[in-house]
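quick one: flavin mononucleotide bound model?
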Amino acid sequence: MNILELIKSRRTIDPDLFTGETIPNELIEEMLEAANWAPTHGFTEPWRFVVYNRDTAPIFGEFHAELFKSLTPTEQFLEKKYEKIKYRSKNCSHVIICVNKRGDKSNIPETEELAATSAAIQNMLLVATEHQIGTFWSTGGMCYHDAFKKYFGFAEADKVVGILYIGKYSIENPSGKRNSGWKEKTIWK
Ligand SMILES: Cc1cc2nc3c(=O)[nH]c(=O)nc-3n(C[C@H](O)[C@H](O)[C@H](O)COP(=O)(O)O)c2cc1C
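yep, here:
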């Protein structure tokens, strides 16, 4: 498959559709290696990852759900949402928390570091796609809350960019869609 076909075949797969099979750590390491080769202005290399495996992911689910419970006003609390957050990874092989570590180079704006971290995540998704591994880039739950990043030891200036739920899947690759083609988003001068 050429690179364009690979890019186009990458799909967001709902973790509920994962099979629960374990993906070898070597494949996850390959994804992380790809991440580390993202473009990076000033070599700030701001991408940071916290990796949970099948055995440890429930610890993350428990933390995430309890954070949701403790920070949600009682009148807004929904048991269904609590359960969804808690058990989101039940069929996953791995879960990766993706964080942008804000550097101290004043000439590199945060936007550029966030761009680099996002590129690193995309690199991971593409390696996963190559191996028919499903990924789900989530920004749901409490991931933008300060207490979330602090739990992982990150600082005020750092930003969680996503939670990657990763697993094998056996459904046919869903067809993708875009609302418009590249021509409508491009001006040639
Ligand atoms: C920064 C970012 C955050 C996302 N957060 C969520 C999310 O919280 N929940 C979700 O269902 N999908 C999330 N997605 C995935 C998009 O829903 C998905 O990319 C979109 O539906 C297009 O589908 P495709 O990835 O299969 O092309 C996110 C994607 C990006 C880039």
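The helical segments are 3-9, 25-35, 57-71, 79-87, 110-130, 146-151.
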